[in-house]
Specification:
Number of helices: 8
Helix content: 25-40%
Strand order of the largest sheet: 6-7-8-3-9-10
Distance between the termini: 39 Å
CATH superfamily of the largest domain: P-loop containing nucleotide triphosphate hydrolases
Number of strands: 18
CATH topology of the largest domain: Rossmann fold
CATH class of the largest domain: Alpha Beta
Largest sheet: 6 strands, mixed
Length: 324
């Protein structure tokens, strides 16, 4: 079937006087790894729960694969959800946890066993099939939860902060694993996260949410390089928001040259180093200028010190004009 796998039109969900999701319009293409990104209380989790059927909208329409989902309960929707807590049964082994939903549906034992074995191979857990959750690492438990969601072969897999329970190093490795699996399976993934780095490194497209509304949809490159507003520019990564004639300009720290001599660039500013943060592969500088305190990112240069007078310079096309 052609067309988007998800089509949302004017979707609204209120809790009392608060519109958690406020007249949202959105389309998600088949086979996308799509991220809903935003801060706490922005409405991203409520939108995910509306997709899953755990919440009922107050207005608007939600179509999945061309079918109106109004009134369709969660277990009849072509979606499955992987929860942040994983919610594994401690008394069951890995294979039993993964196959639980198939047994509940009454699938024949042999067919269920084959499907469980296949999905455990896909998530690289075949050798752990007989282990209990307590005998697994955090990353392995996460993959068990993923396998349990995938084994029912949903058209859409919903992921609620899928990497939040993992430590930083494990999160980085698991990102690539999720992207690999999504590409191999071709299933549409819709992921909720508050982690910008996670969304930017994993998603084919993402929607930035604020106060129940989607404020920008685009590829990670588009969102970072061409933010639609001051909110998006400030929320995604680090940006210097400069007041210019007729509006505002977003200038990313890595687009600014830092030197002790006046650079031969169209835009220059003199300043003084206020703070330096060494981060291994880069250094971040806070530079006080006449107009503002600006953030600059460069390869580490140990010759700069706090209090040094420096010059900043940037190309004519380095900044991106903002609508508001």
């Amino acid at each position: 079937m052609s067309g988007p796998i998800v089509k949302i039109e004017g979707l609204t969900k209120r809790f009392g006087a608060v519109a958690a999701v406020d007249r949202v319009d959105l389309e998600i293409a088949r086979g996308e790894l799509f991220a809903l990104l935003g801060g706490s209380g922005c409405g991203k989790t409520t939108l995910l729960r509306l997709l899953a059927g755990f919440e009922t909208p107050d207005a608007g329409r939600l179509l999945i694969d061309g079918q109106d989902m109004t009134g369709v309960p969660p277990h009849f929707r072509p979606v499955n959800m992987m929860f942040q807590s994983y919610a594994l049964f401690p008394h069951m082994n890995v294979a039993e946890n993964v196959g639980y939903g198939l047994r509940r549906e009454g699938m024949a034992k042999a067919e269920a066993a084959t499907r469980v074995a296949d999905v455990l191979e896909q998530v690289r857990l075949a050798e752990y099939a007989q282990r209990r959750p307590a005998q697994l690492s955090g990353g392995q438990r996460q993959r068990v939860a993923l396998a349990r969601a995938l084994v029912k072969r949903p058209k859409i897999l919903l992921l609620d902060e899928p990497l939040a329970a993992l430590d930083r190093k494990l999160r980085e490795g698991t990102r690539f694993e999720l992207v690999r699996l999504q590409a191999e399976l071709g299933i549409t993934f819709v992921m909720v996260t508050h982690d910008q780095e996670e969304a930017m490194s994993m998603a084919t497209r993402l929607a930035v949410m604020d106060a129940g509304r989607i404020v920008q949809v685009g590829t990670p490159y588009d969102i970072y390089e061409r933010p639609a507003s001051r909110f998006v520019a400030d929320f995604i990564g680090v940006a210097n928001i400069l007041k210019i004639e007729g509006g505002w300009l977003a200038l990313r720290p890595e687009k600014i040259a830092l030197s002790v001599e006046r650079p031969g660039l169209p835009n220059v500013a003199a300043g003084k180093i206020v703070d330096i943060a060494y981060e291994g592969d880069r250094s971040l500088y806070r530079i006080a200028t006449d107009g503002a305190v600006m953030i600059v990112s460069t390869t580490p240069n140990l010759s700069h010190r706090r209090g040094d007078s420096v010059w900043l310079g940037w190309a004519a096309d380095a900044g991106h004009p903002l609508d508001a």
